[in-house]
Amino acid sequence: MAAPRIFRVIVPVDDLEASQKFYAHVLDMSGERVSPNRHYFTCGAVILACVQVEAHRFRPNIESFYFAVVNLEAVHKRMLEAMSLGLGGEFLESDLGMIHTRPWGERSFYVRDPAGNPICFVDSNTKFTGGRFVP
After folding, report:
1. What's the whole-number average pLDDT of the chain?
2. How far apart are CA 79 and CA 85, in angstroms?
3. What stretches of 65-127 show up as alpha helix (H) in DSSP?
4. Three-state DSSP class for 117?
């Protein structure tokens, strides 16, 4: 029996236009508007679905979702650009967005998108997917 696969992750947003511009810049792809309240970004086998929800129902995700990226420095630079261009986003760590090497070997940085959803960008060459971790 084949293992189930995640194919779509919903990211609740309060302003679809702002979130679309932010993700398009940081991910360096335009994505696709699939309905008036949904904009999809195809990230490998998984779709990042920015979905604008009604104001009284809007709540950002409380836990981070993770992107494995080929060029972490380029994504970090685009994140800094997005912030300087007023597209939103903020770094979550106190050192204003330095790239860190985690104890388990991943190189990464954490941010919030314009809607407040936490995100982590990880160097795909260092992503930890399980197995033996020795501190």
Report:
1. 93
2. 10
3. 72-84
4. coil
